[in-house]
């Protein structure tokens, strides 16, 4: 009888682990599908946060804006102040700007 109780506990443990894994995967899928534009700026001076004035200006612009970024290796270290403005930062800013436009 004692081994039967042990087997029940062991099987319940494995079932619990499997359910946790399934819940974890499902929650990641839901978050990925619903929070694609959610971002959190934890920099001290809110470097990557778009101000309310910028949001208002972006909402008022009616025509499309074209942006071309030309970059060379090492140019960010020599010209731009810290924190460096990288291609990824520009890409994420454009995604955010696009969410405020039509």
Structural account:
By secondary structure, the protein is mostly helical. It has two domains: 1-36; 40-102, no CATH class. The protein contains four helices and no strands. The model has no long low-confidence stretch (mean pLDDT 77).
How would you describe this structure in keywords?
102 residues, mainly alpha, 2 domains, 4 helices, 0% strand, elongated
Topology, element by element:
Layout: H1 2-34, H2 52-60, H3 75-78, H4 87-100
Largest sheet: none
User: What is the molecular shape?
Assistant: elongated
How much of the polypeptide forms β-strand, as a percent range?
A: under 5%
Number of strands: 0
**Tally of DSSP helical segments:** 4
Number of domains: 2
Low-confidence stretches: none
Order of helices and strands: HHHH
Mean pLDDT: 77
N-to-C CA distance: 69 Å
Radius of gyration: 24 Å
| Proportion of residues in helical segments | 55-70%
- Structural class assignment: mainly alpha
TL;DR of this structure?
This protein is an all-alpha fold and 102 residues long. Helix content is 59%, strand content 0%.
């Amino acid at each position: 009888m004692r081994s039967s109780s042990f087997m029940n506990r062991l099987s319940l443990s494995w079932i619990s682990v499997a359910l946790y894994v399934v819940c974890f995967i499902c929650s990641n899928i839901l978050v990925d599908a619903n929070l694609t534009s959610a971002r959190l700026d934890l920099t001290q001076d809110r470097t990557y946060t778009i101000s309310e004035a910028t949001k208002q200006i972006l909402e008022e612009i009616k025509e499309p804006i074209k942006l071309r970024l030309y970059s060379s290796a090492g140019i960010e270290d020599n010209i731009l102040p810290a924190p460096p403005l990288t291609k990824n930062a520009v890409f994420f800013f454009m995604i955010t700007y696009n969410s405020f436009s039509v």
